[in-house]
Amino acid sequence: MPTFVQRAVHSFTRLTPLRPQPLLNRAFSAMADLPPDRRPIVVSGPSGVGKGTLYKLLFARHPNCFDLSVSHTTRDPRPGEARGVDYHYVSMSEFESLIAENGFVEHAKFGGNRYGTSKATIEEQTAKGRVVLLDIEMEGVKQIKQCGMDARYVFIAPPDMKSLEDRLRGRGTEKEESVQKRLEQAKKELEYSKTPGVHDRIIVNDDLEKAYAEFEEFVYQKPA
Fold first, then answer.
1. What's the order of all strands across the beta sheet hosting 66-68?
2. Which of 33, 106, 115, 206 fits a disulfide with 159 by CB distance 3.0 to 4.6 angstroms?
3. By percentage, how much of the chain surpasses pLDDT 90?
4. With b meaning 16 or more CB within 10 Å and e meaning fewer, what string describes 138-153?
């Protein structure tokens, strides 16, 4: 015969069904979908090659697993930009103080403004339990290599220079001088990408789904 306690538990369970916990379920789902290798991923490649398209697809297909590193800059926010989302906006003196304190994994100067990726930002984003992606140009890759940060490196390449030129012109936002500068820079980046040991993987973006499949496979591969 059931005891009083057993009858009480049975009644409570029958009258009070367990409620689903969507937030907890989503958290466990995200953890299950995280890559086995949690090191930051440095994505580089010429302007117009489709880097952003690839990692935005990754973010959409694996929600709550990745964060794009938010860089520091000394330029003013543009309309529609948000602090801490698009950039961390700081003064020139604050930026230079971070340089003096060795606070950046990489930094550069463009058009009179400074841009950089801080060590603290990467650590904060990693602490959230997500894998951090850094969209970095060639000089930044060199600096990150020199600072000794443990990361994975993937280079996105165009099928050929003609295809890259067509993509740049297809944007409809580039003046001729800008197109030529970007193409010259692309030649340097492609040449640097051939340096042995610089990148863990080079992906040719000649077909979006094919390139994405290779990109996703690289991101989710097990540590060596």
1. 66-68, 131-135, 41-44, 152-157, 201-204
2. 206
3. 71
4. bebbebbbeeebebbb
> Which among 130, 108, 137, 151 is positioned nearest to 33, based on CA atoms?
130
Q: DSSP label at 48?
A: T
Residues ≥6 apart with Cβ < 8 Å to 185: 46, 47, 138
The full length of the chain comes to 224
Question: pLDDT tens digits, residue range 125-140?
Answer: 899 999 999 999 999 9
Three-state SS string across 98-124, please?
A: HHHCCCEEEEEEECCEEEEEEHHHHHH
Order of all β-strands in the sheet with 72-73:
88-89, 72-73, 113-118, 104-110
DSSP state of 171: T
C-alpha closest to that of 158 among 195, 191, 119, 190: 190
Q: What would the mean pLDDT of 34-52 be, rounded to a whole number?
A: 95
> Is residue 42 within 8 Å of residue 134, measured between CB atoms?
yes
Distance CA 150, CA 199 (A): 13
Residue type present at position 66: F
Identify the three-state secondary structure at position 145: helix
The position carrying tokens 């520091």 is 72
Is the pTM higher than 0.85? no
Region 191-214: mean pLDDT is: 97
